């Protein structure tokens, strides 16, 4: 198996719930164990942007997402925002990779300043202190200087900043194609196989001219 076996997936209150849901589905299909964290703002955005309405309680949410993605028993583990005993809260228990998609600029600020007011922020802090892979997918427009300063600070610490800015060179035909563009880039960074987006040059035909 290439790529990490366990991944923390966090969703916060920026637009782009489709990215997080699609990534969750892909991780499950690739037999990864997912530690799932979501803010209340993200749940509100998800209900606004999609037809997915998550139950409020972690256990019920876990059952819902397992059925939604076809996950095996125990493959998705959902933790409440103040569950300080959850594996992502400690370097000795956290997965080796964490993806936050979408990442709100408020959460971006909290991570950049070392705040640990909830489990999502603490999980990101753990990834930083343990020098583990941390991928943030912000979705905001335009970015203020404060946002950009936080991104630069985190990038200098080894965090991958992957804005939710889909490309068009693959000639997308649907919104799902645009979502898959970003999700495929995340999977590439995690070194997890994907067939949604060919790597640049894979189908390039060399000309004799």
Automatic annotation (TrEMBL):
Entry binding sites for dimethylallyl phosphate: 169, 185
Reactions this protein catalyses: dimethylallyl phosphate + FMNH2 = prenylated FMNH2 + phosphate
Gene3D superfamilies reported in the protein's UniProt record: Flavin prenyltransferase-like
EC number(s) per entry: 2.5.1.129
Keywords attached to this entry: Flavoprotein, FMN, Prenyltransferase, Transferase
GO MF terms, alphabetically ordered: carboxy-lyase activity; flavin prenyltransferase activity
Pfam families, A to Z: Flavoprotein (PF02441)
Function statement: Flavin prenyltransferase that catalyzes the synthesis of the prenylated FMN cofactor (prenyl-FMN) for 4-hydroxy-3-polyprenylbenzoic acid decarboxylase UbiD. The prenyltransferase is metal-independent and links a dimethylallyl moiety from dimethylallyl monophosphate (DMAP) to the flavin N5 and C6 atoms of FMN.
Protein name, per record: Flavin prenyltransferase UbiX
Organism of provenance: Stutzerimonas stutzeri
Gene, per the UniProt record: ubiX
